[in-house]
Amino acid sequence: MNGIRFTRKQLCIPYALFLICFVVAPLLVIVYYAFTNGEGQFTLANLSGFFSSPNTIGTLAYSFAIAVVTTCVCLLIAYPVAYILARSNLKRKYAIVMVFVLPMWINFTLRITALKEVLTVLEGNLAYHPFLNSVIGMTYDFLPFMILPLYTTLMKLDNSLLEAANDLGANRAQTFFKVTLPLSVPGIISGIVMVFLPSMTNYVVLDMLYNSTYIMGSLIGSYFAAYDWHNGSMIALILLFIILIFTLFTNKYEAEDAGGRGGALL
Amino acid sequence: MKKFLRIAFICIMLLALYLPILILAVYSFTTSANIGTIHGFSFQNYITLFTKPELADMIWGTVILAIAAAAISTILGTTGAIGAFYSKKIPSGIVGAMNRIPVVNAEVVTGFAICILLIVVLGVGKDTFVPLVVGHVVLCSPFVYLSVVPKLKQMDSSLYEAAMDLGASPVQALMKVVLPQIMPGIVSGFALALTLSLDDYFITTYTKPATFDTISTYVVNATKGSQTEIKTALWALSTVIFLIVILLVVLMNVTGRNKENDRKGEARG
């Protein structure tokens, strides 16, 4: 034992190796598969195939539209909820926030099942309004992820700034748009990060609601089912690229508590 | 009036959020196979839920997988966080950056990538459960890491030095001084890992053995199937999980409040 001197730094080694083997290596393999064909030769066919097929391009546009609309709807609902709760003088507001967040701990497939049953009673066949139902399903699933970061940011808001704006003659609307809203941007960005990407890729919600999977994530699923690793990898790579751009863009603004989903869950 | 409107808005939102779950809970106690018509009161769904072997298997499978994945993730994530915290800037930055990849990545991509590497390239059998467990650990451990790091930063570093000066070995100092201080982060990381694993669908579908199902994959398949018995038994499952979650949240709040009171008491004392 004397030969091996234990230092605290070495504790990092197993986790670093694990990350290299199972996080970095799989992504490299994806890049390799995306640019090769079945015989292992380099090819751009998968890439050009993606951008020349109306099916895949349509899916990209459609899932983008779903993600944008879902994010906006979530924001429009979550902001007032978070604002009312954060600014109110209710005694147990944290408990109310917990009640809003609590559904996240119920398995999402079971929640979507419940939503499906209710929507079916209201609408009949859900496949008649695919876009509407997709947005409802995604909003129902991801709303808590938007409420929590907004609430946390609005709670931290310095009250004296609002009072100062008031003293300096701003009316309530001006105070909101010139003080509260700009200061809550980090929370808004965190919320968008947690809603936008999942609603672009979570094809199970649509699949469960009306057996359709016309969304980015599902392309991977269908190539997976067809054992087409090369085209599947290309879709994964394109998604990765979108995620990368999105992350670089939002990283600057995001709230410091970068727990992401973690911060929202606990 | 304004206050009334605000409270009404909050209530409507809560209602919209909970109505589907509550309606399902009510119907789970009836013999109805569809929402809309209530026939008779019955515990049949609950009896099916707890007696049908395939349902029991899938629930136990989900729970055991979640506990195993959370335990491994907690060990890896915690040691990784401690190691990175005491490492130089560049290695710790690299670990932090790699740790961020699964956090921002879409689960579909993570699951697919692990499937390609382990199953297609390396030829590991799905039946060994190795790809499944690895996938879940990849999903969970970054969040353990992220919940331990802030606790390390808050820690009083002189205590470790003091323990060493007083003759503790590095291992002793770590176990008796560092570990207790970061324990809250480890516990919340473990809880987070559990919930992530329990909720996961994508990584599971891409890596699971064909005959194994978690709650998520099972429910998705069941909604496409036509077996009414299974469908309504899942309503019962949803209700049971809902009740467990409520119980846990209430318990957490009660114990949390007690701790806070204790702390206040200590401060006063």
Layout of SSEs?
The complex is a heterodimer of chains A (266) and B (269).
Chain A: H1 12-34, H2 45-52, H3 54-87, H4 93-101, H5 108-123, H6 130-156, H7 159-167, H8 172-183, H9 185-201, H10 203-210, H11 216-225, H12 229-251, H13 261-265
Helix pairs in contact in A: 1-12, 3-6, 3-9, 5-6, 5-10, 6-9, 6-10, 7-8, 9-12, 11-12
Chain B: H1 2-27, H2 44-51, H3 53-86, H4 89-104, H5 107-121, H6 130-154, H7 158-165, H8 170-199, H9 202-207, H10 215-224, H11 228-268
Helix pairs in contact in B: 1-11, 2-11, 3-4, 3-6, 3-8, 4-6, 5-6, 6-8, 7-8
Q: Which spans of chain A of ≥5 residues are poorly predicted at pLDDT below 50?
A: 257-266
Q: What would you call the shape of chain A?
A: globular
CATH architecture of the domain at 56-224 in chain B: Orthogonal Bundle
What fraction of residues of chain A sit in β-strands?
under 5%
Give me the Rg of chain A, rounded.
23 Å
Summing up helix and strand content along with how strands pair, one would put the structural category of chain A as mainly alpha
| DSSP summary: helix tally of chain A | 13
Helix amount of chain B: over 70%
Write the H/E string of chain B, N to C.
Answer: HHHHHHHHHHH
Report the radius of gyration of chain B as a whole number of Å.
Answer: 23 Å
Describe this protein's structure.
The complex is a heterodimer of chains A (266) and B (269). Chain A has 266 residues and is an all-alpha fold. In chain A, 76% of the residues lie in helices and 0% in strands. Chain A has 13 helices and no strands. In chain A, helix 5 packs across helix 6. The model of chain A is unreliable at 257-266 (pLDDT under 50). Chain B has a domain at 56-224: Orthogonal Bundle (MetI-like fold), CATH 1.10.3720.10. The two termini of chain B are 45 Å apart. In chain B, helix 2 crosses helix 11, helix 3 packs antiparallel against helix 4 (89-104) and helix 6 (130-154) packs across helix 8 (170-199). Helices cover 81% and strands 0% of the residues of chain B. Classes of the chains: A mainly alpha (266), B mainly alpha (269). The interface between A and B is large, with 83 and 89 residues.
